[in-house]
Amino acid sequence: MDLEEAISRSGHEVIGIAPDMTVALNYAREADIAFVDVRLADGETGPELARLLTGRGLTVIFVTGNPMLVEGRDAGALGVIAKPLTQQAAADVIQFVVDWKGGKQRRPPARLRLFRPFSPAA
To answer: How many angstroms from the chain centroid is the CA of residue 52?
Structure first.
């Protein structure tokens, strides 16, 4: 199951799948949470995209086959989760972010590695 399907089946709206930074930045106007791969069609631009998206108020989660690629390059992202991402893992991560933004503090999902303590004000 791909990420888009996992998110949709979890009851959330997918704004779009962005192949590169330009498309992702256009989608950002309508999004609250962005799942960002490190490598996009325009190269290893995920960390730069994460920096730009978090600057616009989005919560960014890296999704990558190799989480070590984002070590020291978190760019303001909340955390990283390894591929493949199951429907349940996607739902758990989204619910975690929704809860935190709503002021509920709880443990992150087991597969989500946080880069820093996350507060709703961040």
So the answer is: 13
CATH of region 3-114, choose from 3.40.980.10, 1.10.150.20, 3.50.50.60, 3.40.50.2300: 3.40.50.2300
pLDDT of residue 55 exceeding 90? yes
DSSP 42: T
Tokens at 122, concatenated: 């961040």
Q: 70-91 pLDDT, tens per residue?
A: 877 778 899 999 988 888 888 8
pTM of the model: 0.87
Q: Which structure tokens are listed for 28?
A: 């950002």
The CA-based diameter of the chain, rounded to the nearest angstrom, is: 37
Q: For residue 114, what is the enclosing H or E element?
A: strand 113-114
pLDDT of amino acid 118: 60
**Cα distance between residue 11 and residue 24, in whole Å:** 21
